[in-house]
Design a protein that fits this description.
alpha/beta; four-stranded antiparallel beta sheet; disordered C terminus
């Protein structure tokens, strides 16, 4: 963990239990994790390990059964759905495997969407969306629609959209899963450059090669943290 940097994610003894019929499924069991501003962390684990549940909690898409979660200094564990939606739009930029772009909207219109939801004026929205697209190398594709873009370019548009609100956290879920290997490497290279600029990045993946590129790797097994290792090999405590 980055010494002296403010904490962006602070999870304390999180549990998440799902009720399936007469059975309780414990997806997470006592997870504690701190991530500082500017870190690049990969959360890795096999299918059913709890990593997707953890991502949903970190992304304020769900709330824990017990435990606490502070995001960029705000306690979010017990917020209602409307408050969680407001926090998501203000604090978190999401990047998904499937891009999730609007087919009939241009690149700049797709990137500006979070600003529209935040009530930012049209002229300011376009200016900030343009700068975000330039940041990911697509300053010459502002008016292109998704079908006019390659898979890698579509993911860059999605990354620009995730960055446009200057979020406290960039949360990526299998961001190269729909891309070929060469394009996937380009996207990971972009993530590394953004992290070098100070962007806090958490990537959820099942790909060990992808996780190895992160500066810190957190492994989830059976709903618990099995390993938390810095790239240099030192153990990073929660």
């Amino acid at each position: 963990m980055s010494g002296g940097a403010p904490t962006v994610i602070d999870l304390r003894d999180l549990t998440r239990t799902f009720h399936l019929g007469d059975e309780d499924v414990h997806a997470l069991s006592g997870v504690s994790l701190s991530i500082a501003r500017g870190e690049y962390v990969a959360i890795i684990g096999p299918s059913g390990s709890g990593k997707s549940t953890l991502m949903n909690l970190i992304g304020c898409l769900d709330t824990p059964t017990t435990g606490t979660y502070s995001l960029d200094g705000e306690e979010v564990s017990r917020l209602d759905d409307d408050s969680l939606a407001e926090i998501r739009n203000r604090k978190i930029g999401f990047v998904f495997q499937s891009f999730n772009l609007l087919a009939r909207a241009t690149a700049v219109e797709n990137v500006a969407l979070p600003l529209l939801y935040a009530g930012v004026s049209r002229s300011v929205r376009r200016g900030r969306a343009k700068k975000a697209l330039e940041r990911v190398g697509l300053g010459d594709r502002l008016t292109h629609r998704p079908e006019q873009l390659s898979g890698g370019q579509r993911q860059r548009v999605a990354i620009a959209r995730a960055l446009v609100n200057d979020p406290a956290l960039l949360l990526a879920d299998e961001p190269t899963g729909a891309l070929d290997q060469a394009t996937g490497r380009e996207i990971i290279g972009l993530f590394e450059r953004l992290n070098g600029d100070g962007v806090t990045l958490v990537m959820v993946t099942h790909d060990h090669n992808l996780a190895a590129r992160a500066r810190r790797r957190v492994e989830i097994v059976d709903g618990k943290i099995a390993a938390d290792v810095q790239k240099e090999g030192s153990i990073a405590g929660p």
